[in-house]
Amino acid sequence: MPPPLLNVVGLRKDYGHTPVFDDVDLTIDAGETVGLSGKSGSGKSTLGRCILRLEEPTAGEVYYNGADLLKMGKKDLNLVRPDLQMIFQHPETSFNPRMAVGFGIAEPLSYRTGTRPEEVLNGLADLLRRVGLRRDQLDRFPHQLSGGELQRAMLARVFSLQPKLVIADEPTSMLDVSVQAQVLGLMKTLQEETGVSYLLISHDLEVLGAVCDRVAYMRNGTVEKADAG
To answer: Is 6-94+163-228 a domain of CATH 3.30.390.50?
Structure first.
C-alpha cells in the first residue's frame, strides 16, 4: 500500500499559553476526500492553515509525499506551494477588489511562470469553461459577481496550478442550497479529472457525509479518527 499523500503527526498550535489543538494525527490518501467537522471555534480552520504553513504550528510534523513541510526552508517550501492550495469561506478575500476577476485568476500562474496574465487566461480557456465561467464574467470586479460565481473563479485560480491537495474551508457555507450543490458537484468533477485530494472543512455533517470518503471530528482540542462517510 502506498504511503498517504498527507500525514499529520502530533500537530499542536498554541496562541500564547493557550492550546488551540494538540496531538492531532490525520492522513489523506491520493484522490481521497476527508471531511473535518467540529463546533465553531474548535480550531478546524486554524488546523487547515497550519497544515499548509499559512500559520506556523507550535509542534508536530506534516509530511507531504514523505517530506516534512515544517522542516522545509522557504525555497523548498515555495517549490511545493503549487501542490498545496486552500479555498476559503469568503472567496472575495482572495481577489484584489481593484483587479478584474480574470486577472485575479491568472495572477498566481503568471507570477510563477513570468507569463503575461492575458496569455495565462488564453491557456486556461478549457479550465474556465469547465468551471462554468463566461468571458464577460472575467472582466468584472469581485463585488460584481455572486458568491457562487466567485467560488467558481476561486476553483479556476486554484486548479490552474494543478494542485495535489486542496484544503477547502467551509467553501459553500455562504451559498444557498442549490448553489452549494453546484459547487460541490464541480469540486467532485475536478477531482475525477485530476486525482486531487481534498480536506473539506465544514460544520455541516450532511454535506460531509454526502461527499467525503471519511469524516474526522475535532473535539476537545484534538481530532478523532476519521470514519467512513
So the answer is: no
